[in-house]
Design goal:
The complex is a heterodimer of chains A (about 60) and B (about 325). Chain A contains one helix and three strands. Chain A is α+β, with helices and mostly antiparallel strands. The two termini of chain A are about 30 Å apart. Chain B is globular and about 65 Å long. Chain A: InterPro entries: GRASP_targ, Rbsml_synth_pep_Strp. Chain A: This is ATP-grasp-modified RiPP.
């Protein structure tokens, strides 16, 4: 009784590592441990893939 | 005048835009509706024929009448983190927050009504057709026989979710996948199934549109790519995204699409075939853009910030009750 499309489903991939930044409510930005703004460090964004289209997201289906 | 951003704390892509707004000296208030009624509070008064509303978050207080724009990015479910969350409280919080915001003259990216409609893939396909964008032959059905007949006409097919959503119990992803010609389609009866003629692509295209500005990026299909890997989100990394020009006919169709959809932002996915034709696959009304900017250097975040920072027009042009036209 499984819908056809689910024959092609695979386990969702979770982020393997915690992101190295935390939200700063005062700045309204996520900051790295050294205080720099995470969004300005493209190497970090690329490494952690947090700006990537995320099929299987738990909360959003707009990729 | 303030820019209101509705998103979750971990949304580092939104941060990319906040950085530009900060640099331009534009006031920003960032709110996650999930934090109603903890870290976020609201109040609205309808007295003597006038409305006065306020939102507060993180120690910031903003007048709803003082909003120039609202960016609906990745908002949490209203009141999801309340002390005693419930479906009823979520509905109450959603009605209060979005109902008040709907009464403002702020410009939306994107208006919630337009966003809800724009998420329907069958609607997207029809709109794309009407706007002159090439759409691969597609069937959405619960009739196994219809699926079999479609597969006879178009033997090289892919299947994908109608909604774009992915099952969560347990968490699974449903990538766009090739369907073998001898597939048993009887399970089509157990759920609406979207089958589409596979485009033999030489590249994936992500076209991000902000207002009237189009920023296209192209990711070439690697010569040694596995032909069964049709979904770029799940494929091996391959060549990087590169900036690309938008063919004039595509640009015309995309403008018509966004105008009809009443969207100020859209992230379009196309497949480019060997002839250079861009086949419309979908338009994500809140699609991710950070990964494109990181790889191509295209100024998407800055363009969004500039759109959000525009002043509210003295006489807003309203379409279908909203204020979300592309301009």
């Amino acid at each position: 009784m499984q819908p056809f499309a689910l024959n092609y489903a695979r386990p969702a991939v979770e982020l393997e590592a915690a992101t190295p930044y935390v939200y700063d409510a005062g700045l309204q930005l996520n900051v790295l441990r050294d205080g720099r703004v995470a969004a300005c460090d493209f190497a970090v964004l690329r490494e952690f893939g947090t700006t990537t289209s995320t099929a299987g997201s738990k909360t959003h289906f707009d990729d | 005048m303030t820019v209101l951003i509705l998103t979750c704390e971990e949304d580092v892509t939104a941060d990319m835009v906040v950085v530009h707004l900060n640099g331009a000296g534009v006031p920003v208030v960032r709110v996650d509706p999930a934090d109603l009624t903890g870290g976020v509070a609201l109040s609205g008064e309808y007295v003597h024929g006038r409305f006065r509303g306020h939102l507060s978050a993180g120690g910031r207080l903003v007048s709803i009448g003082g909003l120039r724009s609202v960016w609906v990015r990745r908002p949490g479910t209203p009141a999801a983190r309340a002390a005693q969350p419930s479906a009823w409280l979520t509905e109450e919080a959603a009605q209060a927050l979005y109902g008040m915001l709907r009464g403002s003259d702020a410009r939306w990216m994107n208006h919630p009504d337009a966003a809800v409609r724009a998420r329907h893939k069958p609607w997207q396909l029809r709109l794309a057709q009407r706007c002159g964008l090439p759409v691969p032959a597609t069937l959405i059905t619960t009739f196994p026989r219809a699926a079999r007949e479609f597969a006879e006409r178009y033997p090289d097919l892919v299947v994908k979710p109608v909604s774009g959503a992915h099952p969560q119990d347990p968490p699974r992803a449903v990538p766009t996948s090739r369907v073998a010609p001898d597939t048993d389609f009887s399970a089509v009866a157990f759920g609406p199934t979207l089958l589409q003629r596979r485009i033999a692509k030489r590249a994936d295209v992500r076209l991000t549109v902000v207002g009237e500005r189009m920023l296209a990026a192209l990711k070439a299909t690697a010569a040694d790519a596995d032909p069964d890997e049709v979904d770029v989100r799940f494929a091996a990394p391959g060549p990087p995204w590169q900036p690309a020009d938008v063919p004039p006919r595509v640009a015309t169709g995309v403008r018509a699409y966004l105008r009809e959809a009443e969207l100020a932002y859209g992230a379009f996915d196309f497949a480019e075939d060997a002839d250079g034709t861009w086949w419309f696959l979908e338009c994500n009304q809140s699609g991710q853009f950070g990964f494109v900017e990181v790889e191509t250097g295209q100024p998407i975040a800055r363009t969004i910030a500039e759109w959000l920072a525009r002043p509210v027009p003295e006489e807003p042009s309203r379409v279908n009750g909203s204020n979300a036209t592309v301009r």
